[in-house]
Amino acid sequence: MKKTLAAVAVLFCMSLPLENAIAGELPACLHLGKSPTVRSVIEAGRIAEEEVLARLVYAESLSTGYADDQAVYEAIAWGVMNRVRLSRAFPSKARIYGSGIKGVIFKEGQFNPAVSKRSRFSKEFLCPSDKARWRMAELAALKALAGSGNPFIETPWEKEHGLSLVVGFYYPHSIQAKSPLAPWEKSRALKFIGDVKIGGTVLSSRKVRFYRLTSAPVDAGSAHALDEK
Question: What's the pLDDT band for 86 if we cut at 50, 70, 90?
Fold first, then answer.
């Protein structure tokens, strides 16, 4: 019987090295068939949230055009979990990004592989086919789920709250990208942060462009603009 990410997370908590705490096997292959949505297939398959995260990281990483860069996988996993944790702490963000891992991933208009039946990457989301890349996605998901060492916690507000406000990300070289820049590039609500250091690797913004909220959540009683490092 295949191990799920929920099961291997227990191994992780027992302080085994991350490389030894992942299942490595490909997950169950799911198919849309006549299902109305990608989410309905996941729900029917009773896929645990932890595995849904890994599936999303896998499919999104493929869509970036840099599917063999571990830093890409980890950055995306952190980006998703940034939304999850921020929404958990502040209801105003839950209304925008969704609640919980599944709520965030299946939020309408956010992640094409998870919400669009027409996305070519929805097939990868439902049926990961590359074992080496799946292992990369599992490892990235486990790191972000564990929560320590978040590379996006940099500003004074983020350090004080233990949360990251980096919630926007865009893939300039994705076949789905209509422009090298994100549609929200000139938004006052988000600020482009440049290259990101993931572990000992610098992830170029040419691969993934990340954006930090320029204001703290209003229900935190701190709507002022954030001080950047």
Answer: very high
